[in-house]
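Technical annex B. To support the medicinal chemistry partners, we prepared a structural model of the target in complex with 4'-deoxy-4'-aminopyridoxal-5'-phosphate, based solely on the information shown next.
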Amino acid sequence: MASLRTPHLTAKLQGFGTTIFSEMTALAVAHDAVNLGQGAPDFDGPDWIKQAAAEAMVRGANQYCRSFGIPDLCAAIAQHQRRFYDWGVDPETEVTVTAGATEAIFATLLALLDVGDEIVFFEPYYDSYMAAAAAAGARPRTVPLEGPKAPLDVEALRRAITPKTRALLLNTPHNPLGKVFSRDELAAVAEVCREYDLVAITDEVYEHLTFGPPHVPLATLPGMAERTITISSAGKTFSLTGWKIGWAIAPPALSRAVRTAHQFITFCNGTPLQHGIAKALAADDDYFAAFVAGYRKRRDVLCGALADLDMDVLEPDGTYFVCADIRPLGFDDGYAFCRRLPAEVGVAAIPCAAFYEHPERGRHLVRFGFCKRDATLDEGIARLRENLPKMKP
Ligand code: PMP
Ligand code: GLN
């Protein structure tokens, strides 16, 4: 967050400045650094998915579509939930296609939160949560998460709830920590939501990227489908982050609320791309198995290399990010470290403090992404090995 006042910007959005992803990618470009910062793959998803979208474009599927998504994609999303989670979803009344998970989050918070309402989420958090809450005029209350393996502190969660709390937002697998919430942890969250009558909002964009513990949608726990809005996106699963096709799944009454906001944010999005993702979601089991296997290998390579460089590595159970403690290198400020890294080492990374309401809690942590081709990752690691020891605190 920038500390200077931005002219013209509303009071609600003061302080949000330029996102850390844009800042670090600009530094990476300026210094021709290997960009292990912003979470964008440097490879594309499969050609057959691109072809499906291209064919839709050529055959003339280029105008506005139904606001909540083309019928084939809504059906494919429902079918995907059935196939992976044995969860029945009505494609017509319970699915809303959005411009990525980002729009789904924004539309959901605008739809559900009145000025002065409170929303609980975990810290660190994906940066758009704070901005979406601010745009809605809602007050965020954050609950700390300690690391990928640290258990959820249910008492801290309970303490964050007040009579004004309307919703809880949970991200699993978790960016940036790589924590995958266990079924027991989700059961505890579900109990809190039922007890305090909260709407649960889940961000599951990394649902297909887990390396051990399975991904469990909160909505599949007893009594939760009726109060949960499940958000996901095709960007990570099919390595097509620029297509921005996401969705929100919720029971009809909650879907109607989300759709009302969505109509006036984008109305609809990327008709031919929706056709491509409708096909993609039916990819065979081999696709998903190879996808995870490739990422598991890259996770192990990057975690091993960072540990060899004497960082304290917080090995992730999910996502394509790893956080590392830089204090063993003699540094204690991730922002300062990441602002020097592209020029001095030729690599870009993200300071985790950007994901904290209390930045001092994440000051010593830096996030590296492994959504890169082997050659890119090898080059990044080679540069870290060669140049990091020369970078003096
Ligand atoms: N949530 C999380 C946790 C993310 O990491 C991201 C971006 N990578 C998003 C939401 C946004 O997803 P999309 O690109 O589909 O808007
Ligand atoms: N989700 C991506 C990340 O965490 C960034 C997406 C963006 O730049 N908004 O790196």
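Notes passed to the chemistry partners:
The domain at 47-280 is CATH 3.40.640.10 (Aspartate Aminotransferase; domain 2).
The chain has a mean pLDDT of 97.
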